[in-house]
Amino acid sequence: MGKPKITIIPYSSTYDTQTVEMWRESKENAIGQKEGHSFEDHVYFLNYLLPKEYTIELALIDHHVVGMIAYNDHEISQLYIHLDYQGIGIGTALLARAKEQSSGKLTLYTFEVNKQAQAFYEKHGFQIIGRGHENEEGLPDLLYEWILDTSH
């Protein structure tokens, strides 16, 4: 059995329940903390607030949401991969989309407790440029930055 075929599509609200279920499970697993917002509020955020500032794309395998990213030309707001599908290149593919559409520089925050995410971003050329805890979860976080290498 080879690698599953991953399709990346623009976000559609058809997938809102699947996306929020995957997002919440992945985030909870990463930070060891339950989501503070109700499921309905999370769906509303995904459908109505996040798209105002960010392009949202989904990674699908057989019409099942296995990853999501929300980004604009200078920032990645969200990147989550289904727990059962981590480590097979979905995050890398979604991150590549954000890099291609970027202004040549991207920033993102990740939680200090999420060592897996830190290793992933550092492997993909991101460097820590700040620390803080300006988030709803009240957890220390890291500000990462990626700059397009134009030296080649």
From TrEMBL:
PROSITE patterns: GNAT (PS51186). It comes from the Bacteria. Keywords: Transferase. This is GNAT family N-acetyltransferase. Signal peptide: none annotated. CDD domains: NAT_SF. Gene3D superfamilies: 3.40.630.30. It holds the Pfam family Acetyltransf_7. One of its GO terms (molecular function) is acyltransferase activity, transferring groups other than amino-acyl groups. Residues 6-149 form the N-acetyltransferase domain. SUPFAM superfamilies: Acyl-CoA N-acyltransferases (Nat).
